[in-house]
Known about the structure:
Blueprint: H1 2-8, E1 12-18, H2 19-22, H3 36-51, E2 54-60, H4 71-88, E3 94-98, H5 114-135, E4 140-146, H6 150-158, H7 160-165, E5 168-176, H8 183-195, E6 203-211, H9 227-243, E7 247-248, E8 256-257, E9 264-265, H10 281-291, E10 299-300, E11 310-315, E12 318-323
Parallel strand pairs: 1-2, 2-3, 3-4, 4-5, 5-6, 6-7
Antiparallel strand pairs: 8-9, 10-11, 11-12
Helix pairs in contact: 4-5, 8-9, 9-10
Amino acid sequence: REERIKWMQPDYVRMFFWYNDWNPSLDAATFTWDSDNMLSHYRTLDLYQQLGTRVNVCGVEWGVKDPWENPEQLARAIGALLEHLVVEKGYTCIQDYTLTNEPDIFFARSVEREAQSFDTFLTLHQYVTAEFERRGLKLNVVGSDDGNNRTWFERCVENDAYFDVSDLFASHFYFPLNVVPLASQILTDRVALLQARQSHKDFIIGELGFADSRMNPPADNPLMREYPYALLAMSTFMDALNAGVAGWSIWCVHEMYYPGGNTPMHFGLWDFNPPEWSVRPIYHALALMTRNSKAGDIVYRCDSSHPDWVKAARIGNKLFWVNLS
């Protein structure tokens, strides 16, 4: 695992931190910094610290009772987590924080009305950013992180108070095969919404993937094991670069189990099938990008006369292209 990640040389990764692993009671006082999953996180963060990889810590509330009931207390708990990781443990590779994964799907269901949920969403972010400031933590707050929900994303961007507490914005996309040809327009639209604001803030793809009729979220996506998936990824990488997207990540590094150890997550760059740990084609597609580009490289747009067949984008002095014919 570690050797494969080292070979990829990733510039940006996203990690889930489940509340039950470090503050099960959410009392902002009783912390389990030495739980099994936290020890596993430290091992992973040791590697990313060594590689100089920028890490986005994402909060996960699955199975936690009433996680949003006390926003001020929750913010203190989150502040304690990040202070423990960045200051006490020294993981300066952690530069970004996401409150919750795909809030338009999971968070919004936890309250009765979407408008009310967004008000709570904003309040939580305001408490968290204030807590970071109180503790002297210089972290970027990732806004929206929606599950391909333009309405939610637009609300996040156009709400002045929420825009002010966000440093960059993210969306997730698992494009159905019949929607892949529209990826360029969809990504261009997201970037345009941000560009309409006076202050510039980057847009990233928090999770990028594809789906056919066999996909059964959140556990199964057989297409991810196949060669066409890698071609679709390269095609969308080109679309993203040419649209002005600042970066992307693919969920997840390798197959694993959801919290509790009962439900397998058949997503990833390689299989959970020891001793082979079989690599999937998407691993090579992503590594082609990560090994040949660095954060901060200048991106040059490339227009194709036949985008259904060939797409390209230039990063620094390297030209990336994909043959779809």
